[in-house]
């Protein structure tokens, strides 16, 4: 089994959007997302197509596709991008059968260099739902530093929730290699 990552192509956009749009309410709630806040599928696809065409220093969203044996099985993305400074990271494995297999750590170690290098970032921030154990565990395992827990609405598709904030500096990530 070969794990690899690559930048999103336009062929990936519909699959990314479908992951969210076809998810059931309970699954989305488990990751801290609100089904009612998801944009209409066509609008979301157009937004990602528009983002794809932008240069790195103008992007609002950026996606890395996760592959097993060259087949897409998930993605990580950043938003809240301040080029040259920081961005907020998200991670998603699309199918239940691919979760809880230890892939997240491996995929993130392959993904994070894209964020630091392409966006000249100093820090990555990740704010998972406090009640979603998988990302909270994975972030600690790959070297993110826990900063704080606080209540907020962390993103445009999220409900108000207790969130754990983690950070990882480029310097710390490079030292761990």
What topology, given as strand order, has the largest sheet?
Answer: 1-2-3-4-5-7-6
Q: Could you tell me the strand content as a percent range?
A: 25-35%
> What is the gyration radius calculated from CA atoms?
15 Å
Query: How many strands?
Result: 7
Provide a count of the helices: 6
* Major β-sheet profile: 7 strands, mixed
Pairing-aware structural class of the strands and helices?
alpha+beta
Specify the helix fraction band.
25-40%
List its traits.
single chain, 177 residues, alpha+beta, seven-stranded mixed β-sheet, 30% strand, globular
Structure description:
The protein has a seven-stranded mixed beta sheet with strand order 1-2-3-4-5-7-6. The two termini are 22 Å apart. The longest helix is centred in the middle third of the chain and has 16 residues, at 103-118. The mean pLDDT is 95. It contains six helices and seven strands. Helix 1 packs antiparallel against helix 3. The radius of gyration is 15 Å and the shape is globular. It is 34% helix and 30% strand. It is α+β, with helices and mostly antiparallel strands and 177 residues long. Strand 3 (71-82) and strand 4 form a beta hairpin.
Can you summarize this structure?
The chain is α+β, with helices and mostly antiparallel strands. The protein contains 6 helices and 7 strands.
